Amino acid sequence: MPQAPTDYTPDSFKVLLKKLVQTPNDFTPEDCALCFRHLCVQGASDAQAGAFLTALTLSGLEASAEIVAACAAVLREHAVQVKDIAPTPGEHKHGEWDYRDSDKEGDGYTGTVDIVGTGGDGWDTYNVSTTAAVVVAGSGVRVSKHGSKAATSTSGSADLLMSLDCRLSFPVDQLPTFLPASPFLFLFAPHYHPSLAHIAPIRRQLNFRTIFNDALGRGEAGAGDTFAEVLKLLGVERALVVCGKEGLDEVSIAGETWTWWLENGKITRGSIHPTTDFGLPTHPLSSVRGSTPDLNALTFNSVISGTTTPPAHLSSPASPDSPSLDAIRDYVLINAAALLHVSGRAKDWKHGVAIARESIESGGAKTAFEGFRDASKMAMGEQVDVMVVEDDGGVAAKNGFVKSWLKARRNGTGTETPQGDEV
């Protein structure tokens, strides 16, 4: 039987910490879970918390799938629960997002997906997972992205979205209003893990990877097997764990990426390459380097708007001192394609690239982002000017992704329908 919260004290934590430091081989997943329960109820001092995270890293136990899964299970116990946020299948009201195309029978997975890198891989690349998430949402796949502010990089996902005029502190009871407005939803980690708010400053002061990064994935190939096994132990239905061979925690645009595909309880190891598997050119990682949140926001708007004119802080082509819009766009496409394939929306990697391009070129990605931004403001009680458009084959207010308009637009511009993406 679990101890009562009043029993989680610095004195009881001291015993566990001593065991970890002096006899790490005897430190069990149950011990680690108990340590995390102490952390969640502030039953350890800041010094003890820092010592625990450091000792766990140095012990090598963070490479144990059972250890990481035990910690993740405790975090789930103490997290704010998110339920019943998806619109009713088949229902579509004027001014809401039309999911009928993406929810076709046989189209694959129709739940929600997430895409996230841990940061801390040392490359400080552009916010590719956040942008890719919006691009995927623009195709009608529901993306509930979990993220936070930067811990070791210049710009985290939350930093970028706040620079884009989004609100992230909306009440949890407002969540059901989001997915009818947009397939993109952002869950700001501190609001859903309030029990760990006091740990964030400690992690920043340590400034090295800890088991918290393991719980999200890492830019090290050795952690791929661990992370895939953790997801399996936690009952995840389908997942793709990736590690760029440069030590990147995203799908690399520079070269090969190691992969661990989890489906039906089976883990399959492999690798993917930008050109061979996605049909995209390679770019050096220096060409997809990130910047401040405000400058990354300019890049974000350029990518989802489909413009070919780069903002002033990017070069065309890339130079040693300046990333390029073309390289960052391809970086977004390759990661969006991976998520589309995992979601079941795309039959393979190249089909994922085609759908991601269509999301950008059709305006779907921009529409998905604006829907989330406006919904986040309204959830905070702010007044938002919403354009009212009749259902005339255009993009409906707030903002239905109307396939007849996309088909007409493709016919008018000569753009072909991506293979398998029926309209």
TrEMBL record:
Key word Transferase present: yes
Any one Gene Ontology BP term: L-tryptophan biosynthetic process
UniProt KW keywords: Glycosyltransferase, Transferase
InterPro entries in the record: Anthranilate_Pribosyl_Tfrase, Glycosyl_Trfase_fam3, Glycosyl_Trfase_fam3_N_dom, Glycosyl_Trfase_fam3_N_dom_sf, Nuc_phospho_transferase
Domain (Glycosyl transferase family): residue spans on this chain: 112-365
Domain of life, source organism: Eukaryota
Domain Glycosyl transferase family 3 N-terminal: 16-79
Gene Ontology cellular component list: cytosol
One example GO MF annotation: anthranilate phosphoribosyltransferase activity
Protein name: Anthranilate phosphoribosyltransferase
Organism: Saitozyma podzolica
